[in-house]
Amino acid sequence: MRERLATRHASDVLDADGPVRPLRVAIAGFGVVGSSVARILCEREDLRGALQLTAVVNRNVARKRAAWAPESIAWSDDIDAVLGGEVDVLVETIGGVEPARAWVSEALRRGISVVTANKLLIAHHGRALAELAAVHGARLRFEAAVAGGIPAINAIERGVAGDRLARVGGILNGTCNFILSTLASGAASFDDVLDRARALGYAEADPSNDLDGVDAAAKLVVLAAVAFNLELHLEDVRRQSIRDVTAVDCEYAASLGCTIRQLSIADRHGDAEVDAFVGPALVPLDSPLARVFGADNLVLVRGQYGGDVTLSGRGAGGDATAVAVVSDLLALSRGECREGIARIDRAQPASRPPLPYYVRFVVRDRPGILASFAAVFARHGINVDAVLQRPGHPKSRLPFVMTLEPCGQEAAAAALNELRALDAHEVPPVAFPILSGGVHGA
Ligand SMILES: NC(=O)c1ccc[n+]([C@@H]2O[C@H](COP(=O)([O-])OP(=O)(O)OC[C@H]3O[C@@H](n4cnc5c(N)ncnc54)[C@H](OP(=O)(O)O)[C@@H]3O)[C@@H](O)[C@H]2O)c1
To answer: What are the E-state strand segments in 213-295?
Structure first.
């Protein structure tokens, strides 16, 4: 198999002066991203010396045939026939874990390099697939799997390769960012904004994977693999849904000089310990994280030597994501090779260092409530920093907020569990961490 790739890439495709013939590209999955990749490859004449689209694979492919695509492209339902033909690179844009894993594995086994936009595939099987690629002399690239059009993986692997990264993450889910930034701009309710997100095509009919942090956690796993050379599993990432965030929380956050965003943060402690979480957090208004609006994304890295670096832009959308795919294809056509994530070590879980928390209650007001809540925090060794109560709410359903001095996540969770058991609540209390200190938060 090595021989076959050597023929395809080293001598057949490249010589010392660059490509001697274009890489033959097959696209599997002619949907939003796959069709945008195809259109860029067909429209950009300047790429033809490097890349040639030769085949498209999709189920019931006849309905997918595009009028703008040249006659030379083979349209097929049959992945095996396409992989058995003249192909140098497979672009995988079918999504999901299966059959994507099987198709990508088969391509790599045949020495065919793969470019994928599939975060779930890489989060679940990235290391194994990278190993398979290495064994068969093929390449596996996945720039588009994280933050769509933002070249985050390239920036981490090349731009800050001289640093030792301690943090990676950011705002990785455009649906959540649209909802939270719209809610903070004065929208009526979470459900109204979710409906608007659906109408604009930012949220799926079942938005659970976005709202509950599964999508962002998969991206964080991919980023951590590249940034730390450590293998996180999806279940290592603590997740909190954004479904609990209300317009009232956005008002209270503003009065604390903050806004609320779904953050995805992985912090490395020592060599192999990683603390990773995805969920709503209060971020100071002067942080770049607070200035990401709508469906945009932001990727941040924190290096031991170079400090903080951020990249922002469109985290999704067919064209933006396709640019990342085509950039990976061009890197392959230039013969760029990199170690990748084939030989990364398993990350060890670490607990989150103490953070301040925002805790919101909605209660049937009666004398002594504040004192009884403060007593629960005190029992868990937690100091209350401030109590905020905005006017204009009925006593029968009164929201108020307690902010907590930095405390361990376990202590905060235990206190919250005890508080939830009290009978004063109209709505169960919620707690979000407050990121403070430093441009991107501590
Ligand atoms: N859309 C974005 O903005 C975006 C951004 C970043 C990354 N991504 C990633 O890119 C990948 C593709 O996303 P997308 O939005 O382009 O999805 P999509 O529009 O649903 O396209 C997927 C395409 O693959 C085809 N397909 C799916 N399963 C197949 C199977 N078993 N056999 C044959 N064909 C199959 C689908 O055919 P049918 O038409 O029959 O369903 C469809 O044409 C996903 O991994 C996604 O996470 C997407």
So the answer is: 230-231, 238-239, 258-269, 273-284
> In this structure, which residue's CA is closest to atom 18 in ligand 1?
31
Give the C-alpha separation, 358 to 373, whole Å: 14
Q: What is the pTM of this model?
A: 0.94
Active site residue 219: yes
- Other residues' Cβ atoms within 10 Å of the Cβ of residue 386: 11
pLDDT tens digit string along 269-290?
Answer: 999 999 999 999 999 999 999 9
Q: How many beta carbons lie within 10 A of that of residue 3, not counting itself?
A: 9
Q: How far is CA 304 from CA 246, 263, 307, 308, in A?
A: 36, 21, 6, 9
Centre of ligand 1 from the C-alpha of residue 118, in Å: 9
Atom of ligand 1 nearest to the CA of 94: 24
pLDDT score recorded for residue 439: 41
Cα of 345 from ligand 1 centre, angstroms: 30
Nearest CA residue ID for atom 34, ligand 1: 58
What are the tens digits of pLDDT across the range 207-250?
999 999 999 999 999 999 999 999 999 999 999 999 999 999 99
